[in-house]
Amino acid sequence: MPQSVIPGPLAAHLAAIPHLRDGFASFLAACFDTETLAPVTLERCRRLVAGLHAADPATCGPAFADLPAGEAAALARGELPAGLPPADALALEVARHLPWDHHGLTDPPVLAFREACGDRATVTLLAALAMFDALCRMTRAAARLEGA
Q1: Who contacts 6 (Cβ-Cβ below 8 Å, separation ≥6)?
Q2: For every residue of the chain, which 3-state class applies, written as one string?
């Protein structure tokens, strides 16, 4: 697990409220369960969500693994790289609906991921995706507060 699960800009705003920061960090660590989902799967999803936000991946949660440069670049553009393991391709199919098309996420991709990876991995994936999206949004809001 990475040392800090709260991105730097957001952590700076939470520093004045240690009990909130620490509770939030514990909650995020539980969402980013690298024993249930492979770190590289979480990393691919984190980078895709960041790409869909047109954000620096560092603003959307902690890094979990290194990715090949071409793959990282495709995800930064919001594209799904070809040739991924089937479970990762399914996870990215679910992730691509966040943040701007969450109502467009239908049952079949989620059920396909569940069939391939199990219930616990599906819950972990959905929680992690929601947190990647939320962290991108919160960090962007925190940056705007600095200028206010």
Answers
A1: 14, 21, 24, 25, 28, 135
A2: CCCCCCCHHHHHHHCCCHHHHHHHHHHHHHHCCCCCCCHHHHHHHHHHHHHHHCCCHHHHCCCCCCCCHHHHHHHHCCCCCCCCCHHHHHHHHHHCCCCCCHHHCCHHHHHHHHHHHCHHHHHHHHHHHHHHHHHHHHHHHHHHHHCC
pTM of the predicted structure, to 2 decimals = 0.87
Identify whether the C-beta of residue 58 lies closer than 8 Å to the C-beta of residue 8.
Answer: yes
Residue positions counted in the chain: 148
pLDDT tens, position by position, 88-115: 999 999 999 988 887 778 889 999 999 9
The span from the CA of 36 to the CA of 96, in Å, is 21
Stretch 38-54: mean pLDDT: 94
Report angle CA 53, 130, 5 to the nearest 5 degrees: 85
Tell me the C-alpha distance between 113 and 88, whole Å.
9
